Amino acid sequence: MPASDFEHSPGVLRRVPGPAPGHFDAADSTDDAAPLRQALKRHFGFDEFRPGQEAVVRDALAGRDLLAIMPTGGGKSLCFQLPALLRSGVMIVISPLIALMQDQVRLLADNGIAATFLNSSLDARTAAERSAAVLRGEIKLLYLAPERLMTADYLDSFLPRLIAARGISAFTVDEAHCVSEWGHDFRPDYRQLGQLRARFPGIPVLAFTATATGRVRDDIAAQLRLNQPARHVASFNRPNLFYSVKPKGSHSYAELLRQARGAEGVGREAGIVYCLSRKRVDELAARLADDGVRALPYHAGLDAETRRANQEAFIRDDAQVIVATIAFGMGINKPDVRWVVHFELPKTMEGYYQEAGRAGRDGEPAHCTLYFGTGDIRTAEFLISQKIDPNNGEPLEQEQRIARQQLRKVLDYAESSECRRAIQLGYFGEQFSGNCGACDNCKNPKPVEDWTLEAQQFLSCVARLAQRGQRFGSAYVIDILRGAANQKLIDRGHQQLSVYGIGKARAQDEWRVLARALLHQGVVEESGDSYPVLRLNQASRALLKSERRFTLAVPPRRDAGLRQRGSKSAQPIIAATPVEAALFERLRELRKRLADEQKLPPYVVFADTALRAMAAQQPVTLSGFAGIPGVGGHKLERYGAAFVQLIREFLAE
Ligand code: ADP
Ligand code: ZN
User: Fold this and answer.
1) What is the pTM of this model?
2) What is the pLDDT of residues 211-232, one digit of tens each?
3) Any bridge partners for residue 134, and if so which?
């Protein structure tokens, strides 16, 4: 498989210790809480703020600079949109992608909020009309691409005129990690935004991002020259996501297909399948389509029009599943993705967190499953070895070393028997303890077995080699233990070692799991960057002397996937009654019809959350309907009658 067939993340991620993540202040319950809530309901239809939103909104209303870090699905948009409506003047929102601007403007328009965007996709006349509307005060939020904002035309002419005519309430920088070279979506145009502070010192700058790394966060504040910003760092925990890792084997496709077809009473739900290579994406998408799933591929090898069409089909619920490389990412604001499957090993933990995090932005239960097989490790290692300098064909050692470190973190995650959530959050410097109740390891703790004997066999092999002044990595040690007859081993005389072949009873995969567990538990150490070799430490010696024991969560056996067949991973955590499920389906159909009529994505009309509440509460009057979360004044007027009528008809049947 050629390395060029794979898509690489645009930058290498480096982690540095950042400031300990603080947390949102508890929402203060001052007297003016009520009007803010009312505005929330009126404009957006929500009864409650999500954790942290209210504090950000208050700081934005107070005219402070701010840096708000919230995970995907945390509800960032509302944190600047509500202040934009409540403050005088126009809010300028800087966004990196046309698709993101369109999506937000569509959503706002459907809530009856005056917003528009200006970008290169518009002809000159439309752009001029929109600019005029902004100057006339008909618009509260203006979305702009940074390259447009930073032109002389805007800085010297349009913005000063706007300030004189209407005022600018704030500059909001969305996806603010794009200013940082340390992030994974660096955009040189974003770097210029630092000038805004010098040009317009009195206008607050509000920066929003879901980045998880401390270095990028600090860089954002510095690059944008934020002035004593209020820093808000939300927890990166996504409680509605269920994480699991499953062994990969011949049964995995059947499991994926079951996931796509949906459990009984749940129906087919939107999902994303991530693969590493374009070839694999095409194959898997075709296979799913053959099996009757509306699945489409997405990768950088497809032409722009196909990519756009496939993405749009997914967003409009015309395609149920997207099979994609990591090229499919930012710009996908679809809130009702119910499952994300990684069919191949992600390259970094940050990548995994962000990709899996595209599930369940609406806060409803969603599943994130990683399929993991040892073959994937070989593929990943092969890809890393292909990182070579195109000029001289030499290996890029620094990059390879970082990639190996990243891979090791992913393997730690995949093989761990600890809480998946705790590991992910720990990777971002956040503590999580206790049983999360929503990961495979917490729900079904793996049985623990005593592997002291095997651990001693392994360590004594390392010790024998060390006595001869030789150091090797775990793969070689396993070869000796399993009595492999490879030529190098014979040439070195290692067949003569007393430990040669003593570990035949265990499969190679089992030994690998043991070796990694020894490393994780600190019972043996690894050193050397590109070719890690093993060394013994205090703990190894204690184990060899039987002063301590070694236990291991039982490694997944080959048939483990089959035994799990009965488990319905797609089952929502809160089960609906059959009647509710049937009504939900009908509501979904109505939503789809109304959306198609207006050429909108269905989630713009109503989120799944709102449909579920309708199915459960079954309001038959408009005033009852107004109480549904997600139904604001505008949506009530626009869609209330149609939905109430459907519910009435359904109940009559
Ligand atoms: P982010 O940009 O942080 O990923 P969004 O702003 O797109 O998140 O919001 C994610 C989803 O959560 C959207 O569907 C949005 O309508 C919904 N949402 C935001 N705030 C609230 C709230 N207070 N109550 C209910 N749903 C909310
Ligand atoms: Zn857990």
Assistant:
1) 0.78
2) 867 888 899 999 999 999 999 9
3) none
